[in-house]
Structures are given as structure tokens and as C-alpha cells.
Write a structure and sequence with these properties.
mainly alpha
Length: 154
């Protein structure tokens, strides 16, 4: 009877392994979030540095146009440079954020699929092995009982 109860215990094993894999997925997702935050901060710093460098270029162009006494052109060029810089940096930042988000989603989905497949396969093989062992033990029990009956009937 105790051996037969093992099969029931194996059924609960699937839930336990799912809980463990969910914890691992949560931990890895948290690590990935941290990595995303650090990457985003590095990118933000680089974008800010790029913005500063473009600001320096704009100042040089503005100063040179001012020396040439081309005030109207100076204002127009300054506005164009500002718009191009702002638009381009926004596009770069948005694209990087989208790529990081997609990478995180794909990573989490693949990790979940992988762990579910491993857990299901493990539990199935373990259940099959225990079922086989239970059958073998039952056959041995029947054979032993038959041998006892024959021995005592003689």
C-alpha cells in the first residue's frame, strides 16, 4: 500500500517543481530587469553626452554666424539643429527602449517554456519509472503468495 501511495506523491511533485521553476523565473526576470535598468542608465548617460556635444556644435555654429552678422540665419540654423538633435535622440531612445522591452519579453517566455518542458518531462519519466516499479512489486507479491500457497498445500 505504501508503494502505491508513492504514485500519488509523484502527482504532487509536479506542483512542487512548478513552484520552484516559478521562483527561478521570478529571480531571473528580476535580474533581467536590473540589467535593463543599468543598460538604460548607460544609454541615457551616453545620449546626454551626445546632446551636450551637439550643443557645443550648435554654439560654435551660432558664434560663427554671429561673427558674420547673420542674425536671422543664425536663429534659423539654431532652430534646425535643435529640432534635428531632439528628434534624432528621441528616436534613438525610443528604439532602444522597445528593443530592451522585446528582449525581456522573449527572454521570459523562452525561459518559462524551457522550464515547463523540463519539469513535465522529469515528472513524466519519474511517474513512469515508479509505475513500472509498483507493477513489478505487485507481480512479485502475487508470485510470492502463489509460492506460499503451493508450499503450504503440499
Amino acid at each position: 500500500d505504501q508503494i502505491k501511495n508513492i504514485s500519488k506523491d509523484i502527482s504532487g511533485l509536479g506542483d512542487v517543481t512548478k513552484g520552484i521553476s516559478d521562483d527561478q523565473i521570478g529571480s531571473l526576470t528580476s535580474q533581467f530587469d536590473t540589467l535593463n535598468q543599468r543598460t538604460s542608465q548607460i544609454i541615457k548617460t551616453q545620449v546626454d553626452e551626445l546632446r551636450s556635444q551637439f550643443g557645443d556644435v550648435k554654439k560654435i555654429v551660432t558664434d560663427n554666424l554671429q561673427k558674420l552678422r547673420l542674425g536671422v540665419i543664425q536663429q534659423a540654423v539654431g532652430d534646425i539643429i535643435e529640432k534635428v538633435i531632439t528628434t534624432r535622440l528621441k528616436d534613438i531612445t525610443d528604439n532602444l527602449n522597445v528593443q530592451l522591452s522585446v528582449s525581456q519579453t522573449v527572454f521570459a517566455d523562452e525561459l518559462k517554456n524551457l522550464t515547463q518542458g523540463v519539469d513535465s518531462e522529469f515528472v513524466s519519466k519519474l511517474r513512469s519509472s515508479i509505475d513500472d516499479a509498483v507493477k513489478n512489486i505487485e507481480e512479485l507479491s502475487l508470485k510470492t503468495e502463489g509460492d506460499k500457497e503451493r508450499a503450504f498445500s503440499e
